[in-house]
Write a structure and sequence with these properties.
single chain; 635 residues
Length: 635
């Protein structure tokens, strides 16, 4: 019989530590509202795990945007650097001039971003209060402001260093001629810059995730992704150059030539498009399977009335009371209580006295409530062994353990356990180990026996049904209490309604944060592709000068950006599929069922976006005379 106590000013954690072991010895248990809320909180801590990768992905998107923008900006300033050196400026002076420019823009950007963040902090809680499952208290964190400003400067300078190194090796002769391979001599310095960037990303991930293994995994995953994209872009250029289709039309051949010509941007754009698509798709996949977990299955086959402590002699009478009302009996679960007496070749008492044992103490003291059936249910997945339905005539009884029980008891398939079934000893063997989704709204068990063993053991039953409305529930409970006063009835309708409301709000917040980061990624992607305009103007003008028509230039540009968009976004989506699988398994510990949406939406959507931006880049060239464009670009 449950006993409910109300204690004021009591240390419930200390009470749980001191009293719960004593109750275990008496086949009783203690639950406090703090332990119950902690279990519920752990069920949904994936939401917190999701928000951390969102912040990490937002940082990486910003880094990609900074690196791409500064790469183009410095490339356009190399002639100006050469002029400064002709006027007597040293390498150090020209380098610092642009370094200070970038740092100043980073500080200004960090300041503007911090102001916008503070305004959003004041505004969002007011807008989102209706959707949030808790009351929001608005306060200003000066530490967060400082972090925002420092990150703005650090990200700008660090991710600008690689293209800035080109200014160090620019020759004054750059004023008179085009100097190729400016950065060859700076290879050693570039390695140090790359190492500094990797260290920065790792430290940020460690600070954000507060887990060395996760931080290292994120950084290694990003490095592998960058390496794959860079390798595929180089391989693609090599294949196009080697197997160049000379029989194609002029526009088709010219679009392919642009992919491996001097000063091409194939690698940079595939990297930017691929990384942007990878991060956006990973965010979508992550949001998708996270929200799939944050759903309560509410239908006619989901029980919302649970009847506990139904004795074997009462079972049929209760069924005869419920069924005539048109209500289904969804579950009829027998439950037998038992304790462990021996684990392998050591008794439980011996293990209790062993101070060096690593077997979890709850295994030794816990009263297990087990059931028996002939198959697995939807919340279970076989990890090892075989779920046995046949009972041997001689030898130990086969049974199935949940993976957490097997881990804490330190047993594997084939090990033996001796159980005390209310005074009767029963030798068992671990036939299988199951992974149990304890978050599912159904009755799950740590230990499951096959049928044909425990039917005659002292047991009670749990029956469930589904009632359509409040009045039916009240009438059923009233009749059951009058006829069967020992049966405890739990009405889950109100609980399910409350949980569904909370999960709906959490889902809205998660979707909003995912959309916000995806929008940021699209903006960064637009900026990266838009910056390639300055590398296309001169080629387009030269083509017009030698007689190319506007529609030919548009077709060349469209085909080039189409190749880049398909290749970059396609590889990005495929890599995100693999990355999301690893996230689901190692971080969120949940099965991953990939969504089909990124393939028909994200992949063609980003390809179309890249194509539109590429064509828009050339409009100004096509609308102006070639001489006017060249003069404007040189000035």
């Amino acid at each position: 019989m449950p006993i409910i106590l109300s204690l004021r000013d009591a240390d419930l954690e200390q009470l749980d530590e001191e009293v719960d072991p004593m109750l275990d010895e008496q086949n009783a248990d203690l639950d406090t509202h703090t332990s119950t809320s902690d279990r519920l909180g752990r069920r949904y801590d994936n939401v917190g795990r999701f928000l951390n990768p969102v912040a990490f992905i937002a940082l990486l998107l910003g880094c990609v945007g900074i690196a791409s923008s500064v790469h183009i900006y410095i490339k356009e300033k190399l002639r100006a650097v050469a002029v400064l050196k002709c006027l007597g400026a040293t390498r150090k002076q020209t380098f610092l001039i642009y370094l200070l420019q970038i740092a100043g823009m980073g500080l200004l950007g960090g300041f503007v971003g911090t102001i916008i963040g503070l305004l959003l902090q004041q505004t969002f809680p007011l807008i989102l209060q209706e959707f949030l499952p808790f009351e929001v208290e608005i306060s200003t964190s000066y530490a967060a402001i400082a972090v925002g400003l420092i990150l703005g400067i650090l990200m700008s300078v660090l991710f600008a260093l690689s293209p800035l190194l080109n200014t160090w090796f620019v020759s004054p002769l750059q004023v008179l001629r085009v100097q190729e391979n400016v950065g060859v001599k700076s290879r050693k310095a570039r390695i140090w810059v790359v190492l500094a960037i990797v260290l920065f990303v790792f430290l940020f991930a460690l600070w954000l995730l507060n887990n060395l293994k996760y931080a290292l995994s994120f950084v290694v995953g990003i490095i592998i992704t960058f390496s794959i994209l860079a390798g595929i872009s180089i391989l693609f250029m090599g294949l196009v150059k080697r197997y160049f289709p000379k029989s194609w039309s002029f526009t088709s051949r010219q679009s392919l030539l642009n992919l491996f010509r001097p000063n091409n941007q194939t690698a940079v754009l595939i990297l930017a498009i691929g990384i942007g698509t990878f991060l956006i798709s990973t965010l979508y996949f992550t949001k998708d399977f996270l929200l799939a977990k944050a759903v309560v299955e509410a239908n006619e086959e989901s029980p919302n009335i649970i009847m506990f402590d139904v004795q074997t002699g009462q079972k049929q009478d209760i069924i005869n009371t419920v069924s005539p009302k048109g209500l289904p009996i969804l579950d009829n679960i027998p439950i037998v209580t038992m304790r462990m007496e021996r684990i392998k070749d050591r008794s439980v008492n011996e293990i209790r006295l062993d101070t060096t044992t690593s077997i979890n103490k709850w295994i030794l003291n816990h009263e297990f409530r087990v059931t028996y059936r002939d198959s697995l249910i939807g919340s279970e997945k076989l990890v090892s062994g075989q779920f046995t339905t046949e009972v041997p005539k001689n030898g130990p009884v086969p049974m199935s353990l949940a993976d957490n029980v097997a881990r804490d008891a330190q047993v594997v398939v084939g090990d033996t356990l001796l159980f005390n079934v209310q005074g009767m000893l029963m030798e068992t063997v671990v036939a299988s180990i199951r992974e149990v989704d304890w978050g599912r709204m159904q009755l799950n068990f740590s230990i499951v026996f096959p049928t044909g063993i425990l039917e005659n053991a002292p047991q009670f039953h749990v029956l469930t049904t589904n009632v359509p409305d409040k009045s039916t529930s009240a009438n059923l409970q009233r009749e059951l209490v009058q006829k069967f006063p020992n049966v405890s009835i739990l009405d889950l309708r109100q609980v399910l309604t409350l949980i569904e409301s909370i999960l709906d709000k959490i889902s809205w917040v998660v979707s909003f944060m995912a959309f916000f980061s995806i929008l940021t990624g699209i903006i960064v992607l637009i900026g990266s592709v838009r910056n390639s305009k300055y590398q296309r103007i001169r080629e387009s003008v030269l083509l017009r000068t030698i007689g190319a028509k506007s529609n030919q230039i548009l077709k060349i540009t469209a085909l080039e950006y189409l190749y880049l968009g398909i290749l970059g976004s396609g590889i990005g989506v495929l890599l995100s599929l693999l990355g999301s699988q690893l996230l689901a398994y190692f971080i969120f510990e949940t099965p991953f069922v990939p969504s089909w949406i990124p393939f028909p939406v994200v992949l063609p959507g980003i390809t179309l976006l890249v194509l539109i931006i590429g064509l828009f880049n050339n409009l100004s060239v096509l609308k102006s005379p070639p001489l006017q464009v060249l003069r404007r670009e040189n000035s």
